[in-house]
Fold this protein.
Amino acid sequence: MNDLILYTPSGVLATAQPLRRAAKRLGALGFEVSIDEAATAKHQRFAGEDETRLAALHRVAKAAPSVALATRGGYGLTRLLDQLDWKLLGRSVEKGTRWVGLSDITALQLGLLAHTKQISWAGPLACDDFGRTEEEGGVDEITRDCFLEAMDGSLEAVGFRTELGFDGLEARGTLWGGNLAVLCSLLGTPHFPRIKGGILFLEDVNEHPYRIERMLLQLQQAGVLDAQKAVILGSFSGWKKSPLDRGYNFKSCVQALRARCKVPVLTGLPFGHVPTKVCLPVGAKTELLVEGRDVFVAWGHVGHGHDHHHHHGHDHSDDHSDDHNDDHGSGHDDHDHDHHGHHH
């Protein structure tokens, strides 16, 4: 079983070329790729009307492929959450389907966790990560290798570097999270997982640090952050400085959060709307270990240390300098990320 279905549950595909490129590349990596019949449907900014996208999700779930990879994010899953057959999606995971994506796909992944407790994978999107031309940067090797190992079951941990001050930190709990704005939009709904003692990871794109701070403080004031064992921040790219910032930046946002938060807040996770991204099992029992500045997030054999894990290390720490990813040109709608080919 190595079948992979490409489907579009949220935003419209502007053009089909990246989808075809992605299908070809994924085929070359050993997958039997099929493209859902409605993958290129168009209705306003969506990949077809709500019924079309809902039917596509249910079709993919019934087919229960090894991998269900979203073509892109954007916006649109929120419209479907109340109508989705969560039991059907849960059964597909029981049969072995790995639902993969990020950005708007966070709504699907967190809904799946809230309703069925099944695991999905925060990871790449077909068009963004496998559909870029060579001129746009092609396929990132770490992203590709991490994805392949996550899909064949051999990925058991990821490693990255964080700031000083967390040496010796150990935590165990459910790994969950995704896109910050999407996660905040689920607060108070039946689709928000009520995870206590978890390890929460977050990323976002095209959101100024003051907006990121406001969303993080919403989660803190709602009691979500302090109910976790640790919070891990990935990439927050694509924002533009304002003359009113006067030195306020992503670092200021993190400092404000840490001042109010009881739990450790780590930065540097290589995940988000950037070319290099790891894969993370949303809903898995996970162990977090920090040695010096090296962070290990392991889920393969929680309880047996991390010495023998197959893990991907990536030093992402420079992204969290004072002006975090300042100049990743904006001009996209929130969470639309079709053309982010930025390399660090």
In short: Residues 50-63 form the longest helix (14 residues). The radius of gyration is 19 Å. The longest strand covers residues 170-179.
